[in-house]
Each structure stands twice: as C-alpha cells, then as structure tokens.
Design goal:
Length: 472
C-alpha cells in the first residue's frame, strides 16, 4: 500500500532570531534550506522516495545564487517498504545527513558537532497510509504541526557550534557559501542595504510575506497527485520570478520557499526608467504571485500579504525580524473590512528616536491607491517642508472641526478649501487634494476611524519619500 511521508525541520525561527549579524542571519536561513536539500537527495538516492510531492522536484544542478529555496517541509510517497523498514531507513538517512553536515564545519571536532546538531535540528516525520487521508497536504500538515509542538529542550552547551559556524567571518568562507555560490563574498550589512539608493539613509526595510487563500487551492486538490505536482511547480515558478524581481530592486533575499519570502531592502531603488519605492516592489511581487498562480488555478482569488518593518540600521536584528513577522501574521493576514480581506501591507516605522508609526492598507483599496499617489509628491516635500509638516501635525494634535466632519460623514472638501487657500498653498494643491481623497476613501472603506491614522499614513509617506535619510 502506498504510504505518504511528511518531514518537517527546524527550529528556523529560533535560529534566525538568535542572529547577531547579517552573516548569521543569512546562514540561519540557508542552513535549513541546505538541510532540506540534502535530505531530499539522500531519500532519493536510497530509493525510499518514489514520488516527490512538495516541494516540486528541481534539477539537482539548478542553483540560484545566495538564496535558499528549499522549504521546511517535504511530502513524498513510498510504494515498496513496510512501515518498520521505512522508519529504519529514514532514521538512518537523517543521521547520515547530519553527520555529513557536521564534517563540513570549520571546527574539526566532528563528534561533538554531530551530537550538537542531532540535538539542535528538530527533524520530525510522519508515515501514513494513503487511504487514511482525505487531503494529503492538509492532513499531513496537521500531523507535522502536532509533532513540532513536541519541542525538545536543548541541553546547554558551552559552545553553540552552529552560530559559531554562521558568524560573518566564518560563514563566507564555509560550505554554505560554497553551496550558494558566494564563497568569500561579503555578506551585506544592514547599513550597506540602507544606503544602496541614498548614501545618507540610515533606515532599511525587513519584509516577510505569505500567500493568501492558498488553502482553498489545497482543499480542492485533495488526493490528486497530478494536481499537487502542478501546484508545487507553480510555487517554484513564483519563487524563481520573485527572486528576479527582488534582485532587480537590489533587495537582499534571506529566504524564498513555497509562497514565503523574507528579505531586506532599501526604502527606494531605481530601474531603467524611474525611481521606485519599497511599495512598488511589494506591488510587483503581489502581481507576479497572482499571475503565476492564476495560470493553473484561474478560479482562485489569491494574493500576497506583507509585514513591512522599517528600522534604523543599528536596531537589533531580532527585534526588526520579530516586528515584521508580527505585522504579517498579526495584522496583514487578519485585515478585513466589507469585501476586502487580507491582500494587505502592514507597515511600521520605528525611528532611532523611539517614535513609531503603524498603518495597515489593503492593496486593492482606493486608500492604498491614494497613498501611492501621495508618494509621488516628493517635489512638494523638498520645497514646502514647513507647510507639509503643519498639515500633517494638525492630524496628530487633534483637529476638532475635521474630526466632527469625519465622524458625521459630512463633506470635507470645503474644509481644505477654506483652510489652505493662501498663495503658498497653490504650490502643493495636488498634495492637499490627495489628503482630502485619502480621508474620504479611509472613511468609506473603514467606517469610523481616528484621525491619528491619517497622521500615520502621512508620516510613513514622508519618511519613504525622503528615503529614510533623516527623521521627520
């Protein structure tokens, strides 16, 4: 009887959040992609993997420079072994893979490193009969989720051999860099990333993304192995295209697998024709995801949600990463108002001064389109700083008249016309009109809201327009 095998590896989040520099951060992600890649090769060569379901099988010579593209879960089938023999073979394969990785460490104490990695890597698997499942991915993921909850407490070690191997100076000369085709190349610092577009900028973006409504596709596929392969191939196609989009923007991809991305990026970049902002990058990624998945699954309304953390380049890495993750899974993925769900960008800027601004916008909304229009008003930012700041601060300090108009759902155009009608205001009439439109669309799409939310939108707009090269 055909058996379905699911494998999960970790602890990815714990390892990433332990990183103290960008070398450790890159290595913390890549080591798990490398682990999954070598497990797949081992299972395949030992003839216990008959069909690889998820992720889709890649040509073993296929390589994307620097980026780990293997996810943390594997699902495959076996038609030949009984349960006991299959378990013995899987256990043996896992030990051989971990030992092989241990031998590649720069420290020659292979025996201790092997023991450390055996304890550290959380490699769990499940074997189930095909006739015992209704939906291969959903049922297997539920089992793997429960296995991940049984987290082994790691023994305290005087030396964390993994983080030592992943430090900036070691990792760029080691086996992971060789595998990623970046041997002896510098791992970009957060300060370097912040200054890619503007040498004065001290801020950069950390972005984590996840596909929306993918579960609907999986539910409909059920046990259809051929459709599962099509689904897996679509995800691979998206990742390859997404990495190209990220490279063109000069972003630094830390992880790309399935429908998930984690990357650093400057707040602005430039293509052959025009200047781009981080939001143009996110829009392009969302577009690529939709177009790729729609080719094989045209009936599904898929999209991409993002957690966008913008922090000072010396801000602790683990805090910026935790913030991006919380923005994605705590805010963007839960966005819902009227008929707008998910498909959101949750943004938070944490300034060096400690001031913070947070906004959640749906990418299909008129509010977001108006926000994007405001981002184009960079010339007004430069030439009318005092007036722009005055308008923005009126929302933060509490504008009783405007609040009353908004709460009572009364027209607000006359308010702006009466309050910003001096000669100096003519210079940035479009800017004022866009703010008026922003309030109108915010009111229509969210109902009741606090005017401070408008201040946060304008604060983030100003910060992005200036490329984060000074605090506002």
């Amino acid at each position: 009887m055909r058996k379905i095998i699911g494998v999960t590896i970790g602890p990815i989040v714990k390892t990433i959040l332990s990183a103290n520099d960008t070398g450790q951060l890159w290595g913390s992600s890549y080591i798990f992609s490398y682990l999954m890649k070598t497990l797949i090769k081992k299972f395949d060569s030992s003839e216990i993997m008959d069909e690889q379901i998820l992720p889709a099988k890649l040509d073993e010579n296929y390589q994307i420079k620097r980026v780990g593209i293997y996810p943390d879960r594997l699902i495959f089938t076996n038609n030949t072994c009984d349960g006991r023999l299959l378990k013995e073979k899987i256990d043996k394969n896992i030990d051989e893979v971990v030992l092989d990785i241990a031998t590649k460490f720069s420290d020659n104490n292979t025996k201790k490193i092997f023991k450390f990695l055996k304890d550290y890597f959380q490699i769990n698997y499940a074997i189930i009969n095909e006739n015992a499942v209704e939906n291969i991915i959903i049922d297997m993921n539920e089992i793997l989720d429960s296995l991940e909850l049984d987290y082994r407490v790691l023994p305290k070690e005087k030396i964390n051999y993994l983080m030592k191997e992943l430090s900036n100076e070691v990792v760029k000369k080691g086996f992971l860099a060789a595998d990623a085709n970046i041997l002896n190349e510098e791992i970009q610092s957060t300060e370097y990333i912040a200054k890619i577009h503007d040498s004065k900028s001290k801020y950069y973006a950390i972005v984590q993304s996840d596909g929306d409504n993918i579960g609907n596709i999986i539910k409909k596929i059920g046990k259809d192995l051929e459709r599962l392969k099509v689904f897996s191939n679509s995800l691979n196609e998206y990742i390859i295209k997404a990495i190209k989009v990220l490279d063109d923007y000069k972003a630094y991809t830390l992880y790309a697998g399935g429908d998930d991305l984690l990357f650093f990026a400057p707040l602005k970049s430039r293509d052959m024709k025009k200047e781009l902002t981080i939001y143009d990058l996110l829009d392009n990624l969302n577009k690529v995801f939709k177009e790729t998945m729609k080719k094989e699954f045209p009936e599904e309304e898929v999209s991409m949600s993002f957690g966008l953390s913008i922090t000072y380049h010396k801000y602790p890495l683990y805090e910026g990463l935790s913030l991006a993750q919380g923005l994605l899974f705590g805010d963007a993925k839960h966005f819902e108002f009227n008929n707008l769900k998910k498909n959101a960008i949750a943004t938070q800027i944490v300034k060096h001064s400690g001031q913070s601004s947070k906004v959640i916008l749906n990418q299909s909304s008129e509010t977001y389109r108006t926000f994007k229009n405001l981002l184009l008003e960079t010339q007004n930012d430069r030439n009318n700083k005092a007036e722009i700041k005055s308008i923005k601060n009126s929302f933060r300090e509490g504008n009783v008249v405007l609040k009353t108009l908004v709460d009572q759902k009364r027209p607000i155009k006359s308010y702006f016309k009466n309050n910003y009608n001096k000669d100096v205001h003519i210079k940035f009439e479009d800017y004022i009109n866009n703010i008026s439109s922003l309030i109108n669309t915010y009111r229509e799409e969210k109902g009741k809201f606090d005017l401070s939310e408008i201040y946060n939108v304008l604060e983030i707009k100003d910060f992005i327009s200036k490329g984060g090269n000074n605090e506002i």
